User: What shape does this take?
Amino acid sequence: MPLRVRPREKLLPQVLGPELIAPCGMNCGLCTAYVRDKKGCLGCRAGDEGKSKSCLACTIRNCETLRWSESGFCVDCERFPCPRLKRLDVRYRTKYRMSMLENLQTIQATGIESFVASEQERWACPECGGLQCVHVPECVYCGHVWP
Assistant: This one.
């Protein structure tokens, strides 16, 4: 299967930081939009430049309750998990081997720094050490296929 994303610069897991964890629990550093070279997105917490229309219109990112949340994460909301987050979680668990709900629960239990450290380890390619993109089944740098 040909790779759908081929960045010129290899990103290493160390680029992942707390600022790349979206309010919904998505690790934006693993997103195709973050990894790509052209029109790259800098994550949900960054400005609007480079974001797709769907990201700009995201009901979670634009949630009024979230704006007043102390942590800035959906897990603190009295409606957690809301229907939108549940649907998103099912899609990501099914297609991309990741759960936003599990991510948020881990952040709540262990803290953001511990979560980011575990993500750096989890998403490093065992062949080349590059940062894996969650949206493709193989390493975007060396082609290693993920189990």
In short: The first helix runs from residue 32 to 35.
